[in-house]
Amino acid sequence: MSPAILLSFLIGYFLILIIIAFATSNKSSDNSTFFIANRNSKWYLVAFGMIGTALSGVTFISVPGEVGAPAGNQFQYFQFVLGNAVGFFIIATVLLPLYYRMQLTSIYSYIEQRLGYYSYKTAASIFLISRVIGSAFRLYLVVIVLQRFIFDSYGVPFWATVLISLLLIWSYTFKGGLKTIIITDTLQTFFLVLSVFLTLYFICSSLNLDIPSAFETIKNSGYSKVFFYEDFMTNGFHVSKQFIGGIFVTIAMTGLDQDLMQKNLSMKTIGEAQKNMFTFTAVFVVLNIFFLSVGALLYIYATKNGISIPLDHITGMPRTDFLFPEIAFNHLSVLPAIVFMLGLTAATFATTDSALTALTTSFCVDFLHMNKGDNSNSKDSINKRHMVHVGFSVLMFLVILVFNAVNDESVVKGIFKVASYTYGPLLGLYSFGLFVKNRGLHDKLVPVICLVSPFICYILNAYSSDLLNGYAFSVELILVNGLITFIGLLLISKKTDQQTKF
Fold first, then answer.
1. Which of 6, 90, 320, 339 is most deeply packed, by most CB within 10 A?
2. At 39, is the pLDDT very low, low, confident or very high (cuts 50, 70, 90)?
3. Which of 91-105, 138-152, 304-318 has the highest mean pLDDT?
4. What's the start-to-end Cα distance of the chain, in Å?
5. What angle do CA 118, 121, 122 make, to 5 degrees?
6. Structural domain range at position 258
7. From CA 265, how far away is CA 102, in angstroms rounded?
8. 396 alpha carbon, distance to own chain's centre
């Protein structure tokens, strides 16, 4: 597959996004438009666009790659997805009504009103750190693919590929913000979904299978096991760990995350926001089945054609993240390669552009307080917002370069490992605010609790086999993290006569 063809499609794709950006932000590019799209978004557009934001390049590459990983993953990821679905339901029925009742721009304003100033700043800081790391991981994944299959051919260094990618994202998000993102994410999700189904079609054609026989082949292969009940103590794939972890990772990484909640808050009513979440959940579950099916077919195709898992240039070890692009670019025809590139680009950039907008919003609202006062849409405030947007783009650039220097494991594992540590304290903070009544916090000690809890979890995870009789943690570690934070908050609280408002 010619790098020049791939590059030309990539350029054309971003030109379309930039045109959309200028069209949507032509009449209004103030802070209200950037932060919450003037609360005038259509729920069906948000629901469809959120699919691309939630799935990202991680789902597009790493999830299919993990199906045939040496650890024997198979379809175990679907246990986690089922937990995600329950988590989305809890978000729609518990958190969204709270956010709408309080008319929030930043969801962390709830913590300020319920727990106090230092708790509020801690929650917002946790989001900024978590989202920068998580989004940098996701963008890193697509950049190493672009580097390997396009830019290496032109002698472009890795840092330049990262810089180009971030400049392109910045160029179509800096004016319209969320209003632009909702439209561009809808387009990018369309390309993502289309690429999934077309990829299935192309691989099935290469294996001389129709769709029904393809699913029968997957069922009879060694890749289709979904539920893992064996060895609860030491098996990280155990259904209870994956399902429970899926619930609480979703609540923390979606319901307590400004990025995805910002889209929900851009709608007129709570009813529309809930319709958005329920529709999104159904499509999310179904699409993940197809991603896992693509993974099984990739390994069946690789076995039939003698294709090995590609090696990482840095570690020299097999890296399952590279199998999908390796087959798409080097073993199928031109059209499947173009479809793959569109899908990968759409998935990853839909996540990153949304994250940059949410990071900018959170910092501007939670630390610069741009949503307060009569000057919230002044020229000075808009200029400050532009500077913050540039600042987060630069920060993400630096973090990706660090990842490239030190990362040596699957991106999927890396993201959820980081999330287990950084999002856990948010679970504790919101749980305390929602379920503990008539108790006041020693607010200045909250940052200490939120630092101590991840440290304890790190020790537990590192030495669990010795401390817990061989128990191995998986994604359920985020629940332990939240529980430790919750207990810590109880210890620094005292009974008060003041009635809780929320």
1. 320
2. low
3. 91-105
4. 57
5. 85
6. 3-367+379-420
7. 11
8. 15
